[in-house]
Amino acid sequence: MMNKRSTTQSVILYALVLALVIFCVFPFLQILSTSLKHPIDWGNPSLIPRVLHLDAYKELLGLMPAKEVDVPASVQRLLDNPALSAEKKQMLLDKFSAGGDVFPFGRYMLNTFVISFVTGICSTFLASLAAYAIARLRFPAQSLMANGVLFVYMVGGVLLMVPLYQMSVNVGLASSAAGTIFSLFLIYLIQTLPVAMYMLGNYFRTIPFSLEEAAMMDGCSRVEAFWRIIMPLSKPMLFTVFIYCFVIAWNEYLFASVFLKQYQDFQTLPLALQTLFTSKNAIWDRIMAASMLTLLPVVICFMLANKHLSGGLTDGGVKG
Amino acid sequence: MQKREEHMSSVLIKNESRLGLKLVAPAVGIIGLLVIYPILFNIYLSFFDVQLNGTKTFVGMENYTDLLGNPRYYHSIGVSVIYLIGTVIGTTVLGLAAAILMNQEFRFRNLARGLILLPYFAPVISVVFGWQFIFDPVNGIYNHVVVDVLHLTDTRENLIGNPDSALFVVIVFDIWKHFPIAYLLFLAKLQSVPKDLYEAAAIDGQNAWGRFWHVTLPELRFVIATVVLLRIIWNLNRFEDVYLLAPNVETLPIFTYYQAFAGIVDQGVAAAISVIQLLVLVGLIWLYVRKVLKW
């Protein structure tokens, strides 16, 4: 019926598609382009750098050769003094090299990866248990819990930041680095649990009950049927849910900024990038290279999970 | 014999409900402790003067009366309303347009479908810098085009630096970032609209616009309602996308954040704002669960 298109219609269609794709992709191209440009090239509106400039990436990834330290002659004389211990000499040297110039990107990436990974695993595991129960078993207050999950998911983090912060202060978790990170982990868990339960619950319902029934006829218990039948069948969805939770934690800024402000060594990428941007030595090429490196794992994750994700997202009131 | 079977089945039911409770316990326990309890604790805190270190002094309704007499509060409500209207209309219209476009057949369709999801997937923190650069007064492409190419004005403007124009940038950014989720919802529904409805309309002599108006829109009515309601619910609480791009655009969540963690800290007032906002939110969620999920 609509297969036949005139040439004009085709041209309009392709023009619209192209415009939409450019609108979506342009900021990414801008980030990539600026990350590869030399500072003198920033004012150049073209997306193609005049000279390829990889210093920003090298610096972030720690591939830059250590800068020769400029030491004044008076200090050099002190350093040459054999009476001074090696330790003291190093301290002196550090004073001149450490201008807060080095941005420990690798460290921040590792922090972010660890907390996101742990959140993803725990959340997917706990959610799969609860989602199975809600989807398949009959127990008291079941529908209350099923609806409650949806309600809880829609209560945004902003509404909970004051009470959650006060709770962690009251129980003393906020006073140590370990306690703070644990609080943050718990908060990421509740930010991901409801959506994970929702997505998995919907998925478990699509698995025919006869499969479990057959397993139980063969002498499996309910729990065994869940482990041996449902979980293996749900692997792709479990992976998708894990990625979704991982990315929520990877991107989170609000609570990281509230909890980790004074623990610089444990900051996550969003917080560290924002600090880098607002600090004096914010340089576009470094910011953009850091953005690119933060973005890449997420984009790869989503490409891996895309097949199931689009379906999983549209099934429920997923955050957007 | 029959008695015994009844007994068996009641044991089974009991076992099943015990297992069910056991399985939901960890998740529900954590949610109860870290969502339900904080909501109640928040109401309690809103009657106190609360410091960052946890000291509390009871002040009764003072936080609420302070808040209702604070012009900044009304200003941030106004900003939030403009932000909500702009983003809800923007994402719904663009999402619908994109879905109709991507439902056509053309070459590289799968590639295009994948590419337009990128804004939704990408971390906010990364893409805000790209947007900052586009609107940068010195190097940005926006000023280059407006001033040097089109000669619309003579002066390069810092659009994000000025709160009024920044609100506009934030709205466009939000539409860019979140229209893909609306698009996915619309596309899923469009693909399930029976083809013969369109054929019947074509036989009736409807042109493309008529088919859109008389077939597509009525079929999508519920999805449109879902999208609009969900956009309002999510954007009412949206913090990161606004704060990281333009911290000078004071929507309600950002006003709350400043009250709670910046400058003269007043967490009690922040709690009071959250309580009022939660009431509005509960109303919206109730509407969503009652009206939209039941459809």
UniProtKB/TrEMBL annotation, chain A:
The chain crosses the membrane at residues 12-32, 108-132, 144-165, 171-190, 237-260, 287-305. GO terms for cellular component: plasma membrane. It is found in: Cell membrane. Keywords: Cell membrane, Membrane, Transmembrane, Transmembrane helix, Transport. It is a multi-pass membrane protein. Residues 109-305 form the ABC transmembrane type-1 domain. Pfam families: BPD_transp_1 (PF00528). Its main location: membrane. It comes from the Bacteria. GO terms for biological process: transmembrane transport. PANTHER family: INNER MEMBRANE ABC TRANSPORTER PERMEASE PROTEIN YCJP, MALTOSE TRANSPORT SYSTEM PERMEASE-RELATED. Belongs to the binding-protein-dependent transport system permease family. MalFG subfamily. This is Carbohydrate ABC transporter membrane protein 2 (CUT1 family). It comes from Marinomonas foliarum.
From TrEMBL, chain B:
Coiled coil: none annotated. Keywords: Cell membrane, Membrane, Transmembrane, Transmembrane helix, Transport. SUPFAM superfamilies: MetI-like (SSF161098). It comes from Marinomonas foliarum. It is found in: Cell membrane. Belongs to the binding-protein-dependent transport system permease family. Residues 77-288 form the ABC transmembrane type-1 domain. This is Carbohydrate ABC transporter membrane protein 1 (CUT1 family). Pfam families: BPD_transp_1. The keyword rRNA processing does not apply. The chain crosses the membrane at residues 21-45, 73-102, 114-134, 166-188, 220-237, 257-289. The keyword Transmembrane applies. One of its GO terms (cellular component) is plasma membrane. Signal peptide: none annotated. One of its GO terms (biological process) is transmembrane transport. It is a multi-pass membrane protein.
